[in-house]
TrEMBL record:
Keywords: Cell membrane, Membrane, Transmembrane, Transmembrane helix. The chain crosses the membrane at residues 20-38, 44-66, 104-125, 140-161. Residues 16-177 form the Cytochrome b561 bacterial/Ni-hydrogenase domain. This is Cytochrome b. Signal peptide: none annotated. It is a multi-pass membrane protein. The lineage of its organism: Bacteria, Pseudomonadati, Pseudomonadota, Alphaproteobacteria, Hyphomicrobiales. GO terms for biological process: respiratory electron transport chain. It holds the Pfam family Ni_hydr_CYTB. It comes from Pseudoxanthobacter soli DSM 19599. GO terms for molecular function: electron transfer activity; heme binding. It is found in: Cell membrane.
Length: 181
């Protein structure tokens, strides 16, 4: 008879993503889907959704300095040596397992956060009299939004691929906040 797998409980998992990080992540996912595919550009609910993203982004940036250990930027800031070290480890087949963000995921997360901030800023600027109807600003806003969409799809694909490669459901970890110990 095959041996049964041990139950996955608090003793076999570690808390990684706190509620603030998970709420930020899923709020941004929902807002991007709404604003990119469902809501009409420039209309009331599109703008409200953008302001929600700006608000949760501000909370997340503050939380990156005062939050739980895996939420702090200092824990996962991607220095060039860390990024190239991870790439080298991957190429050599000796990649380390990271409980929090790995260096490449950190680059992606910080890039997406910067793009979100720039998209919120350019969206807000379009509501000002000084920039009302400026086509260049609308184009910059659209390019930023499309860049978020491309990188978010790459991020999701990487999470799925890494889940398969490391035999650990990273998407589910962002739902539950827990990863394998």
């Amino acid at each position: 008879m095959p041996a049964s797998r041990p139950a996955r409980g608090p003793e076999t998992t570690v808390k990684v993503w706190d509620p603030v990080v998970r709420l930020f992540h899923w709020t941004v996912v929902t807002a991007c889907v709404l604003n990119l595919f469902i809501l009409e550009e420039g209309h009331y609910w599109h703008r409200v959704t953008g302001y929600v993203v700006a608000a949760v982004l501000i909370v997340r940036v503050v939380w990156g300095f005062v939050g739980t250990p895996y939420a702090r930027f200092a824990q996962f800031f991607p220095t060039p040596s860390k990024v190239f070290g991870q790439i080298g480890d991957m190429l050599d087949g000796r990649e380390k397992r990271y409980i929090g963000h790995n260096p490449l995921a950190s680059v992606m997360m910080l890039t997406l956060m910067a793009l979100l901030a720039a998209t919120c800023l350019t969206g807000w600027m379009q509501t000002l009299d000084a920039f009302w109807g400026e086509e260049w600003l609308e184009n910059v806003h659209a390019i930023l939004a499309n860049s978020i969409m491309v990188l978010a799809l790459l991020h999701a694909a990487a999470a799925i691929f890494e889940s398969w490669r490391h035999k650990e459901n990273l998407v589910w970890a962002m739902v539950t906040g827990r990863k394998r110990a």
